[in-house]
Amino acid sequence: MHKLILVTGGTGYIGSHTVVELMNEGFDVVIIDNLSNSEKSVLDGIAKITGRRPYFEQFDLCDKERVHNFFKIYRKVGAIIHFAAYKAVGESVEKPLMYYQNNLISLMNLLQGMVDFNVHNLVFSSSCTVYGEPDELPVTEKAPIKLSTSPYGNTKQIAEEIISDTIKAHELLKAIALRYFNPIGAHPSALIGELPIGVPNNLVPFITQTASGIRDELKVFGNDYNTHDGTAIRDYINVVDLAKAHVVSVKRMLAEKTKSNFEIFNLGTGKGSSVLEIVNSFKKATGRDLNYKIVGRREGDTEAVYADTKLANEELGWKAEISLEDTLKSAWEWEKNIRNLK
Ligand code: WQD
Q: What is the 56 CA–ligand 1 centroid distance (Å)?
């Protein structure tokens, strides 16, 4: 079986957790990352957890020649997991061209490399944002793709189409797109986790930074939604559970077990949690109090979205297993570790 897996964006949040799970399963890993949104020290965390260091190549996937030369050197890549992309929804609205250029040119250079060097297997990091505000809940993979509310979400939709068209033109290529819901938490070792730069956009890092005193209070964006407690509902999935789904997907392709050349799976828990439920669950899990204030809705937010996970459960034999409380506890342990709190 091919042992070398390329992970682009492998020093990032989900990428680093996936590298750990791949190495734990005996794969060798090479990471390509330009460190634009992560730190090289993540490699030390990975090495401490797994006892091995992944290969690491620092360059920008938008540099076509660098990508070509990479594949000239690394000839034994069995599969690629492609995480490298900008992912801040709000920033993408302010800087659409930066998002379209970065997220799409990097993908196309990678696909060209796959075609030129006979690398057949791609796992693509997609997102539930492709569903927009779903008509039905839970959301299945057959739900209609909605016009995205952000250039970021649109890059995910366009990327899936580029991959689909490339596969149709090159019959040996296969891909699995994994549509994540809301990844949260950190590795139980607290040696790797989410490292948001600046003020976090996402809920859980904002919560942990409020609990550690970096932020004064959490603003809850709206409590006038048509939900049981008025706050918006999401499907929060543990990042280690998410990482394991990528390993299962790579193994599925290497073992030639895919049912078509382009498969799509939702990765969630199948359970929706409101913002206030996350706040209360965090307080219960960590014993920390939390300052928060209800404010107006955030532009572009959907009311409720959570996954139908049947397809991933049945086809991948994968399901999320780590509880919400343990996940929030792991986020807090990671926060304490990076802030040197006891
Ligand atoms: C979750 C809920 C907010 C912050 C985004 C991207 C998605 C994926 C995950 C990349 C919402 C509320 C948040 C805060 C709050 N990213 N909230 N106060 O928007 O569901 O998804 O991140 O792939 O693609 O769209 O995640 O964590 O920002 O928000 O009340 O300070 O928490 O309104 O209801 P979101 P989020």
A: 31
Token couple for 291: 């300052």
Q: Rounded to the nearest 10 degrees, how much is the dihedral formed by the CA atoms of 10, 16, 22, 28?
A: 50
Contact criterion met (CB below 8 Å) for 286 and 327: no
Outline where 106-216 has alpha helix (H). 106-116, 151-169, 203-211
Residue 237, pLDDT score: 98
Q: Is 100 among the residues known to form the active site?
A: no
Evaluate the CA torsion angle 123, 78, 195, 91 in order and state its sign.
negative
* Distance of CA 178 from the midpoint of ligand 1 (Å): 18
Task: Locate 192 and state its tokens.
Answer: 């790797």
CB contact at 8 A, 328 and 290: no
Q: For residue 76, is pLDDT > 60? A: yes
Cβ 184 under 6 angstroms from ligand 1:
no
Q: What is the dihedral of CA 262, 78, 74, 72, to 10 degrees?
A: -50
Q: What pLDDT digit, counting tens, does each position of 149-207 carry? A: 899 999 999 999 999 999 999 999 999 999 999 999 999 999 999 998 899 999 999 99
Burial call 81-100: b when 16+ CB within 10 Å, e when fewer: bbbbbbbbbebbeeeeeebb
- Rounded to a whole number of angstroms, the distance between the first and last alpha carbons of the chain is 44
